[in-house]
Structures are given as C-alpha cells and as structure tokens.
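[PROTEIN RECORD]
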Amino acid sequence: MKRRWHFCVSVSAASMLVGAAAADASALRVCADPNNLPFSDQARRGFENEIVELIARDLGATVEYTWWAQRRGYVRHTLKANICDVWPGVASGAEMMTSSRPYYRSSYVFVTRADRGMHIASFDDPQLRQLLIGVQMVGSDAMNTPPAHALARRGIVQNVRGYMLYGDYRQPHPASAIIDAVKNGNVDVAVVWGPMAGYFAAQASTPLTIEPVEPWRDGMVPMAFYVSMGVRHGDNALLKRLDDSLERNHAAISAILAKYHVPVLPDTFAASENSSQ
C-alpha cells in the first residue's frame, strides 16, 4: 500500500529476492512477501496465497512466485523489473501500478483485551488520553501510518508506543508483536490494520476485542481502504483477466477472508476508483 496514507511500503530497503519465475503464458507470475502472515509466506499459508491460487485455477494457470519482502523499492525490483506480473494485496489506486477491481475492503481497528471491557471505537474517546496505545509504524518516527497521524493531531503522543509494521524479519510472522503486546498487557489498546488484527487475535490465548475505527475518515486521513491486485501500467490484458476472475469468484474470496478472520467492511466489490473512504 502506498505511502500517502497507505501504510505498507515506506520501509528500509531489502534484498529478499529468493527466486524469479521465467515468463510463461500458462503461469500467473506473482510477487509476494515470504514472511508476512496473514497475507503470504513462502509456505503459501496466507490468505493472499489462497486467493491467488483460486484466481490462477479459474484462469487455467499455475502460480509462480517471486519472493520479495515488502520494503522500499519492491515495485521497482519486481513489477517494474518484469520478474513478476501481479502484486496482490495493494491499496486500490496505488500510483506505481494499475489496480484491479477491489476484492475486499477493511479498516484499522482498535484491539483490547476482552477482560478489560474498554470498547474503544473512535480517536475522540477520552480513554485514549490515559491509556498506553500501541501503533503500527513504518519508519523510526512512528508518524507515517494513519492512526499515528490521527493521534498526533489530537496531541496524544507521550502515551503512544510504536511497533514496526514488519518487525524482526528473522522471526516468524513478525507483524504479530503489536497483538502480543495487547495480550501480555504491555499496552492497553493497539490500533492495527484489520486483516492483521483479526488473524492474530483469533489465535491469541487471551480473548481480545476488535472494533473498527469510526468514522472511516479522520479529517483528510482515511482509516479504511479498498484492496486490489496491482499490475504494471499498460498491462491491460492481464488486468481484464484478473478483473473478470475476481468478479466471478467474489463469493469464494469472501469465504477465504472469513476463514482468516479478516474484518471486511461493506461495499467490498465496489468500483476500483473508490480507492479509500
């Protein structure tokens, strides 16, 4: 997802290329992160892996992965380098690629321990001024995700604790650290991108509560995003095939998202120009 309020690209450069698939008309060449559950991993256990494989079957193709960590430069080193053709799970309307029709829409959510009974849904909740708040960050200043901007705009800064969006890449599913912090009581509440929160909260040994951030826009900053597959600009034939397949398979995609506990907002399959609202 792109930098302007889209939170998943602006990190340190990485060189995690593991393999590049040769061009093959019968293959769907997919760019994917090898250690980014619940979205994807090299064992193909993420929901983006399942969705890509569903689409490939529908198109009569096989999936060939180029594994590359989602860090700064990933579009340049993958799609633009022509070593893969599709990047699933990007914010609709991302500037460096052309977006397919959306196949889900989610939002940031507040995550708390169920036994605390806090029920926070808005950045204007007065409880947030007294609680320790975990926030996902991309860079070292913790100021480049929508929740960080929303909190800073209200002067809520001193009680905020940053958790790297990608975490320690040497560990399995490093993004789960912020959910672990809620579970273990290191923070009182965390504001987390919905798919990550839903997946890791469902696995937590301590019951957690997830509540979507409302409203879905905080000033000029969106808290909800449509999600698409990205292709190179001008790759219109592939884009059309993906769009048609995503439309045909929307019920099956919804079932996959539900299996991974992805919180999905209404209008998931709205037109792709509705990139964030």
Summary: The longest helix spans residues 236-248. The CA atoms of residues 111 and 167 lie 18 Å apart.
